[in-house]
Design a protein that fits this description.
By secondary structure, this protein is an alpha+beta fold. The protein has two domains: 1-68; 76-171, Ribosomal protein S6/Translation elongation factor EF1B (Alpha-Beta Plaits, 2-Layer Sandwich). The protein is built from three helices and four strands.
């Protein structure tokens, strides 16, 4: 083999080696990027799982409380009637004067586990009597609250307050 042929073979060998190195380098780079992407996705999944684990204790406590205080299934009309009777009875017991009572439409959105019976009641009385009345009506363990309260001074008596309140009771609807 002549010197020129040897140089040509060496040249092609070096060129082939360089091309092979470039191909391997590109392949290694894409594999490294894929590994980094999978690692980052795994870190995000781990962070999400840890967040769920940390919040699961709180959610578990809330679910246990709710299971402990789950109301018995009842018909909408029964719950609304009992709610109105309770609000009226407690208002009279604390010395409030009932001006108006109005049943409101029940929030019975399809697919929800709990429905809400609502009444709007307007009472008049002293500030102390109103606080006592709200204290007896707001019972989270019975899933009952006064969701809206509007206070206005009484026009005839400065010592009295007029109050319009929306009282809501969450309940499990009776299955038919």
């Amino acid at each position: 083999m002549s010197a020129r042929e040897k140089k040509l073979i060496i040249f092609f060998a070096i060129a082939g080696f360089a091309i092979l190195n470039l191909l391997v380098f590109n392949f290694a780079t894409t594999q490294r990027q894929a590994v980094n992407t999978r690692r980052e996705q795994a870190r995000q999944k781990l962070a999400t799982a840890e967040m769920f684990r940390e919040s699961s204790a709180q959610v578990t406590d809330q679910m246990a409380w709710l299971a402990e205080h789950e109301p018995q299934p009842a018909a909408n009309q029964d719950v609304q009637t009992k709610l109105q009777q309770l609000a009226e009875r407690e208002a009279k017991a604390t010395g409030l004067t009932i001006k108006t009572q109005k049943p409101l439409p029940t929030d019975s959105t399809e697919g929800r586990h709990y429905h809400r019976a609502k009444i709007q009641i307007t009472v008049s009385g002293s500030e102390q009597a109103l606080y006592q009345w709200f204290d007896k009506l707001n019972m989270p363990d019975q899933l009952r609250i006064a969701s809206q309260i509007r206070l206005t001074p009484n026009q005839q008596d400065d010592t009295q307050i007029d109050c319009t309140a929306t009282i809501e009771q969450w309940f499990v609807p009776a299955t038919t």
